[in-house]
TrEMBL record:
Native species: Neodrepanis coruscans (wattled asity)
SUPFAM superfamilies attached to this UniProt entry: Nucleoside diphosphate kinase, NDK
UniProt-listed Gene3D superfamilies: Nucleoside diphosphate kinase-like domain
Single Gene Ontology MF annotation: kinase activity
Record-linked PROSITE patterns: NDPK_LIKE
Keywords recorded for this protein, A-Z: Kinase, Transferase
Record lineage: Eukaryota, Metazoa, Chordata, Craniata, Vertebrata
InterPro entries: NDK-like_dom, NDK-like_dom_sf, TXND_domain-containing
Family assignment from sequence similarity: Belongs to the NDK family.
Protein name, entry field: NDK5 kinase
Amino acid sequence: MSSPVLLCVFRGIDAYEALGAALQGLTQGRGKPSTSLPQAVMALTPEVTFRQAILFFTEADFVTGKACFYCLCLGESWRCRAESLFTYLQAGAQVLCTVLLIKPGVWSQNLPRILQNLHLEKFTMVGMKHINLEPASALRLLPSEVEQDPAALGAHCTYLTSGTALVLCLQRPNAVKKLMDLLGPEDPKLAQALDPCLWRAQYGTSTVHNGFYGSKSYAMSVRDVKLFFPEGLCCAECQALEEEEV
């Protein structure tokens, strides 16, 4: 080769789709191909990624920011755990937990169908309880934009505290994003326009009566597990929850 090449390894949610879209955007400026950008070739599957990675990187190279090292902090030695991305590629997707709250009036009429759909989507239920939400707990479940509208805030809190909700702790690889993809947008009308099979499109009637609450991020899922299941879960906790001391 007459010129050097740059090898990069990226890690992220939907990495292949996201990187492919980014590369397409870089090589096509406003519909016109760009000749000033370098050519890029990316791996298209996890198997190809692993095979190509071991050609160019060693185990020592292929480590995340939590590298193994010693440091002095307030006179004490601390050792951080090394996390090799080779190990993640070999092990596959990490099993995570997320929380699904089925709002009052929805679960009592549709629970068998909802549980069947969760089973079809490869979720494992590791916690379940009926709960009558207190206003303070209801507020923690609302989107931040709702807090700016007193009328909407009151309507959401009134509904969430109007009856018994069913809270499920669910487990599977990529659980948080998978659940969000199934639920769809907060507004059932928007969900209906995007895909009638989305759960909020099927069970919701308005942004208040939209059927479900789901943890929107991994950090929120950890918070929600601690909030609704402080006594623990009904199975061996996954590694992620052990690290968060849930």
